[in-house]
Amino acid sequence: MTTAATFPVTAPAAGPTRSPREAVPADLWDKQVGLLMRDYPYDSVMAARVLGQAYAYLLTAMNHRGEKLGLAPSTLVDIGVHTIILDTVAYAELCERHNGGRFLHHVPKVEFKNDGSVMKTATRIAADGWDLDLSLWTDAADCGPCHPGNDAH
Fold first, then answer.
1. Which domain holds residue 87?
2. Given Cys at both, which of 9, 47, 59, 127 links 36, Cβ 3.0 to 4.6 Å?
3. Residue 138 lies in a domain
């Protein structure tokens, strides 16, 4: 039996939080919410929650490019990440705007890790000022870095 390391998840120290929805054009947001509803048993509220956390995760990872933090999404958030990155034209534009034109690659591993990296990621997202929907990060015990130690997720 393995146990996950625990990390406190707190809101940013000062100032209002940012909504990932503000970083995404409205028509693209609506399209990707629709894709999540098409492919998963989500209503529009759940789809928007998952998508928002996926964008917060990706934008945080891009913001910390090169820091080798080993950031990782939860299983639920990763569903949103896949929806975003499979829309390759929009994803390339996101990387252009928020990652210095560099592509943030997706390099999944077969085995999940139980190393606390998902909750560390949630903490980093909150510290960066993004809205954090903590309930979407609670499946952290079954996840871990897809490709630790580089600028991929």
1. 20-142
2. 47
3. yes
Task: Check residue 19 and report its DSSP letter.
Answer: P
Whole-number CA gyration radius for the chain = 15
User: Which residues partner with 130 through β-bridges?
Assistant: 18
Residue 115 in domain? yes
Reported as type and span, the H/E element at residue 70 is none
Task: Give 92's contacts (C-beta < 8 A, 6+ positions apart).
Answer: 103
Task: Say how far apart CA 8 and CA 40 lie, in whole Å.
Answer: 30
Report how many domains make up the chain: 1
Give the separation between CA 11 and CA 82, rounded to whole angstroms. 26
Q: How far is CA 92 from the centre of its chain?
A: 16
Residue 11 inside a domain? The answer is no
| pTM for this prediction | 0.83
